[in-house]
Amino acid sequence: MLSQRMQEALNVQVVMEAQSSQAYLAMGSWADIQPGLKGVTKFFFKHSDEERMHMLKLIHYINERGGFAIVPALKQPVLTFVSLKQAFEELFAHEVKVSEGINELVDMSLQEKDYATHNFLQWYVNEQIEEERLARECNDKLELIGDDKSGLYLFDRDIMTMENGERR
Length: 168
Ligand SMILES: [Fe+2]
Ligand SMILES: [Fe+2]
Fold this sequence. Notes:
The chain is mostly helical. The chain is about 80% helix and about 0% strand. It binds fe (ii) ion (2 copies).
């Protein structure tokens, strides 16, 4: 059984994952109307779906442990970006914040000796390592590319394989 405090904290994470999903959905829609960003568009939409899956996983867990998962209202995310670089900077900042949220939950689960929740959260701990790695890599590449159009072309072409192919 979840403590009231743990339940509330997990529900805050539900909000965070839902907001992430919305934020990346907006990035996808923005990228979709930019010329030549088909790969990036796919990447953002796929990521949005993944965040929704992260949210669902939490919802199922909260309810399974005798809590009640609250489906939250969502704020409108940032809709437009001055550049792809800016969108990815926001994505990275967002993932760092999510990681902080997960770390706080892990901390709380230990304080409360809630080892089931601690165990459940390990999946998110690992996921965030990968998410931050990927976002950092995208930012590094875009930094190198700058305004170079052929670089951007390759970035867009390769982004989906960066996610799957280079997994360590
Ligand atoms: Fe997530
Ligand atoms: Fe994420």
